[in-house]
Amino acid sequence: MAKKIVLAYSGGLDTSVAIKWLMEKGYEVVCFMADVGQGADTKSAKKRALKIGASKCIVGDLKKKFVDEYVFPALKTGALYQGKYNLATALSRPLIAEAMVAVAKKEKAVAIAHGCTGKGNDQVRFEVTFHVKAPSLKVIAPVREWELTTRESEIDYAAEHNIPIEQTKKKLYSIDVNLWGISVEGGKLEDPCFEPQSDTFINIKPLENASSKAQHITVTFKNGIPVAIDGKKYGSVELVNRLNLIGASHGVGRVDMIEDRLVGIKSREVYEAPASEILYAAHTALEELVLDREVRKYKNFLSERYSELVYYGLWFTPLREAIDAFIDKTQEKVSGEVVLKLYKGNVIVCGRKSPYSKYKKALATYGEGDVFDQKLAKGFIDLWAMPYRA
Which three-class secondary structure state does DSSP give residue 252? Predict the structure, then answer.
């Protein structure tokens, strides 16, 4: 009897080819497909996996867990890798890997596999989680080991073995989709000078086709978590989906960056994340209103470190848990409403209010009602400058 292996299956080129390749190595392949809001036809993907030769294809609905336990903690932290990337793909990997380990234990598998390349970040995110959660399982990465050195050769292999795929040699973009964002890379995008064409846009409308009418929306937060849009409460998954639709129609959430990968190389990445851009703008505006200066400064320092931990695949670590505990403390009064205007790719904060606001008009105003004693300023300045006086 063949030994079982659990494969992280997406239905894409790499993992479809990996099923057949692992079978040729003598394994019984059990596919695990995580639903993290990619909107894929999981039923068709499951049929394709079984047609290729997988003995089983398990689909796990991880959408709510993904948003509640991964996405929103990152939002509360303000984590953006290199100040731009919202970590959508990076956040999903430890979640998927942990779920795969649970399947492997249930199926009594001896090994676990993924379809990541040897020059990417995802291999680290998957395998670090495997090592933490199930160190006894053997890990196989077909794309690092097989003789198929290009995506074109994978397509040829698929044709030779009658493996149904959607990629063609003319459109070689690698696309990863989940609720929190979409990444597009490869093909002509590998040239940093190449302007992304219309076929690289997945959900977001190009600015030329975005709505010509601005839209105002109000986002309500409770303890740093978004809970309502325009006064209407939504569940976490529904709220993100709603903002993705609204933002995409206004061309909001497109990021084109040169990214420093963990393995030491640079890559050109294009991302789509409408809901993320809206929520980060709103959350930051609310924090400016309710957090004191020193907390905000220290939190910004931790935000950068947190983004690195997520990007580097170190989700299941004591440091990430400790930062989460600190962040939760800072979010106790991050509650209120933020009004934003969406127009032609822009997210503009128009107003914000909170019962915990630290803004005092009587101190800030230059008009009637000013209670600030300006005579105190001279003494303050003298003391402030004292260490630097000649």
Answer: coil
User: Is the pTM above the cut of 0.85?
Assistant: yes
Q: Which structure tokens are listed for 29?
A: 């392949």
Which residues lie below 8 Å from residue 189, measured CB to CB, with a gap of 6+? 173, 196, 200, 268, 270
CA distance 104 to 109: 5
Q: Which residues are part of the catalytic machinery?
A: 14, 93, 122, 174
pLDDT at position 248? 98
Number of residues assigned to the chain: 390
Task: Tell me the C-alpha distance between 32 and 62, whole Å.
Answer: 12
CATH number for the segment(s) 176-353: 3.90.1260.10
Q: What percent of the chain has pLDDT over 90?
A: 85
Q: Structural domain boundaries of the chain?
A: 3-172, 176-353
∠ CA 270-273-279, nearest 5°, is: 145
Strand arrangement of the beta sheet that strand 346-353 belongs to? 232-233, 225-229, 215-222, 336-343, 346-353
Domain 3-172 top-level CATH class: alpha beta
Predicted confidence (pLDDT) per residue in 101-160, tens digit: 999 999 999 999 999 988 889 999 999 999 999 999 999 999 998 988 777 888 888 888
Domains 3-172 and 176-353 share a fold: no
